[in-house]
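Checked the freezer inventory, then went back to the computational side. Two predictions to log before the end of the day. The first one is the construct we discussed on Monday; recording sequence and tokens without edits.
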Amino acid sequence: MKIFAILRVAVRAMRRNKMRTILTMLGMIIGVGAVIATVSLGDGAKSQVEAQIASMGQNVIQVFAGSFTRGGVRSGWNNAGTLTVEDALAIEREIPDVTVISPEYRNGTLVAAGNQNWSTTIMGEGPDYLDIRQWPLEEGAMFTPMDVRAASKVAVVGKTVADQLFPDGNVIGHVIRIKNVPFVVVGELAPKGFSFMGSDQDDTVIVPYSSAMKRLFGATNIRGIMVQAKDEKSMAEVQDEITDLLRERHKIAPGHDDDFMLRTQDDIRQIADSASATMRILLAGVACVSLIVGGIGIMNIMLVSVTERTREIGIRMAVGAHGWDILLQFLTEAVALSLVGGFLGILLGAGSSKLFAYWKDWPALTSPFWVMGAFVFSALVGIFFGFYPAWKASKLDPIDALRYE
């Protein structure tokens, strides 16, 4: 039997019971739509996280204080003052593949300007911090190395802090009070938005690390060091050299734990990707259950169709149709139901993900790979669940089929 004749018979059979056809395809539509929507939103979230990680800068290694064991107690990063400004300067001076560094001291406190106040994060940084982070200024300028040496009372504010303390705008040159210490605003940061951890990157005030340590918090140690390697190829070597240098400076004996931690963007990206992949697999697995249910629905309807069309099958066999022709006919109908349902499911999934993205301001990326995969999978579902009814129809005895009422 020619393929076009088979398709024509299949279309006629589906049009004969329109409502049953629509309900049969509904399982495939919902299943494929759910897969496309969840994967699109998952890919969108992944791209957003990657963009936020990239916004941390290029070839950046973060050194955190802490992660050591003392008295049977293991301390996490930032809990111990194990890094000094001299450590940061030694990294910049003694490791050739390091371009710039920024010693860090962070703490939260209240800032005020006029009759406005706001609780925010104070970041004590070096003058090269914005270059490392690739963070441009909206207006004004970054403080200088001379400001760091003099522990000057100057500050660069994030967009959120600027909006809260100066709702009328024009922040440059104004004075803000940090723990009642006056600081002159010399720059305003361009907005960066939320980080992949969910924190507002613009809710910050950057001051020279020397000012944060001496004038604000009375600290003698820093919390971390941001290090920028000259290129991606040298990242691994720079990490090893930093580890060796700090272990030597801190007089850590072989076999003992480091009193610092190193993290790179790749480490953060792997953690984020792992969490994202787990969630996507979970959601896609739940959505695939709908595809299986849809396939079972197709098998059920095709078995009913075989029973209803038993006499038709007998007549076709009597006029020369072979068992293969009957099998191919019913298998084609099952695959057609799956493919049409899959196509409509792709439209539903892509449309719903875009609608959700517009509603929640959330990125959605519909991958052609997943679209094609969903379409092929729906065809395989039709073949798998449609084969048994088709095989059963092909094995009917022509004489018994003609007698069937």
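The second is the one RB wanted added to the comparison set:
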Amino acid sequence: MTEQPVVPSRERELRVMSGWPMLAAVIVIFLAALALLITAGVLADRGQIGNGAAVAMVAIGILLLLLDTVLSFGFFALEPNETRVCVLFGAYKGTVRQTGFRWANPFYSNGPTVKPGGDSGTREAAAAAAAVGKKGQPARLPKKYPRYKISVRARTFNGPKLKVNDRRGNPVEIAAVVVWRVKDTAQAVFDVEDFEQYVETQSETALRHLASSYAYDHGEENEITLRSNVDEVSQALKAELEQRLARAGVVVEEARLTHLAYAPEIAQAMLRRQQAEAVIDARQKIVHGAVSMVQMALNELTEKGVVELDPERKAAMVSNLMVVLCGESEVHPVINTGTLYA
């Protein structure tokens, strides 16, 4: 049996009417129903109409009140950068992006109810509802997205510190912050179970994969490392997140590393290694500079004819200058008051 491919959902815009004209209509219907009920009672009491006519007027008034009640469930309001996904008896009809006071079909779904046993937020909500039920009140589970209202504002996920191994197997601690927003509300609602939890899970997964793909530092020539190439690593993290979160209709605005360090068990050893490498680099520069200065001094003495030195005296002079220039402590020279060859 061949597996049917999953067709991703696509958002389509739904235009709905302003809520103010419908609010006026609801008020008019309510007043008309109330007037019918009062008129029927007054006329029947005076005997001006028969019982059949009075019953008909009361029935019409009750129907108008029921209609008015049903219509009143269609009102809703949307803030800037907020949308409503409209679902009619399980069928997706479109997404409303018009802000302000609006009215739509009152039979549009009011959003899914939180299910017990789901993600951590779901379990906490279910536990809170169960605690309320124990106090003698009816247990009501909150709705995850009331009336299917989905915010398309930019959101920030500040991930926890993760302990992973880098490309060379060294344990490191790494954390990142991800700025994201919902672009396609239909994909966010219908293609994944919980798009907020999906973003958190995929962000941690992408960060773990990224950390294992690069070395912490001390890379080879032109090799990208986590510590030395933060911008390149952040761009790679953003690209991987965009690929992973495209299924949920989510776009990534920015992804940056917020924490990067060796794990505590190897931090001291790596610190000593870095200090040793720093000392070696400094020594190399000192020796290179000392050799250049000694060579310059010998060339100056020879060119200007200040003194004639044989190879043995040149070697002694080079040795003394190297000691003076490369020594860590202050050198106290001994003045020769005799001849150079004494």
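For RB: The two ends are 104 Å apart (CA to CA). The longest strand covers residues 250-262. Let me know if you want it refolded.
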